[in-house]
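User: I'm new to structure prediction. If I give you an amino acid sequence, what do you actually give back? Let's try with this one:
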Amino acid sequence: MKYLLLLMLAAYVLWRWREAQAARGSPPLRPEQPQTIEMVACAHCGVHLPVLQALTAHGAYFCSAAHQKASGV
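Assistant: Good question. You get back a string of structure tokens that encode the predicted 3D arrangement of the chain. For your 73 residues, that looks like this:
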């Protein structure tokens, strides 16, 4: 009976401590998943780069204007 009361007291203290930590605005135990960025390969040299930085022409992606011209597109 004594051990049951001690266990309940410990659980209560732990619960209150976690509640206080959450109220202070501490970061969550699990960090958020990082945002993924779609990558594409240059049609001329094969270098991978973010799709937002790639040049596009006729459905192909290029890493620079020079590679776009060199490919004849």
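You can read the tokens as a compact description of the fold. Here is one thing that stands out. Residues 2-70 form one domain.
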